[in-house]
Write a structure and sequence with these properties.
This protein is an alpha+beta fold. The chain has four helices and twelve strands, in the order ααββαβββββαβββββ. Strands 3-6-7-8-9-10 form a six-stranded mixed beta sheet, with helices on both faces. A two-stranded antiparallel sheet has the order 1-2. Strands 4-5 form a two-stranded antiparallel sheet.
């Protein structure tokens, strides 16, 4: 085993919110913190990144001045133990762009593009975490073998803090979240 293959010590200990907040942007890139432990995400494919970017651009264009949509954006779901997720696409209140960390109450929608290796996390784990945090909308984008993405939408039931299934879209998304969105994902 070479020195490059050994994970740094900080990856084997629980990380506090204060520690994470002191790290540089470079240190935080490509990781999430779940229950205080660092989770390294493998690099996404070009198809994955393109799909996320197309979706974010369409959401940003539809959102108007009150909402922003971005990719590669941290959301602090809880402080103790620290859970910090980095959804593929996030729609958040425009007036909170300078606030860090971004909190669930600032977020309208998160979308995850499912990739090989992230199926269980995106279909089960993150869904429950986002719902428990109170994020109103969750979209899961599946990259179908046909090349035409499938978008599963979910709407939060605030009383139970669980998502109920919303509409299902194949190729083209025409939804309201609370603003109307039309996205042609076509064959990516």
């Amino acid at each position: 085993m070479t020195a490059e293959m050994v994970a740094p010590a900080w990856m084997h200990t629980q990380i506090s919110a204060e520690q994470y907040d002191s790290w540089s942007e470079e240190q935080c890139a490509g990781i999430e913190i779940v229950d205080g432990m660092v989770v390294v995400s493998p690099s996404a494919s070009k198809r994955h990144n393109r799909l996320a970017r197309i979706l974010a651009n369409a959401l940003d264009g539809a959102a108007g001045p009150d909402w922003n949509a971005d990719t590669d954006f941290d959301v602090r779901l809880q402080d103790v133990p620290l859970t910090n997720r980095r959804p593929d696409v996030i729609v958040y209140r425009a007036d909170t762009i300078e606030l860090t960390p971004t909190r669930p109450e600032h977020v309208l929608l998160v979308a995850e593009v499912v990739s090989p290796g992230s199926e269980t996390t995106d279909r089960v784990v993150k869904v429950n975490q986002y719902a428990k945090a109170g994020i109103p909308f969750y979209w899961r984008v599946e990259q179908a073998a046909t090349g035409v993405p499938i978008v599963y939408t979910y709407v939060l039931d605030p009383a139970t803090k669980t998502y109920r299934e919303g509409e299902l879209f194949t190729g083209t998304v025409k939804a309201t979240v609370p603003f109307p969105v039309a996205v042609d994902l076509g064959a990516i």
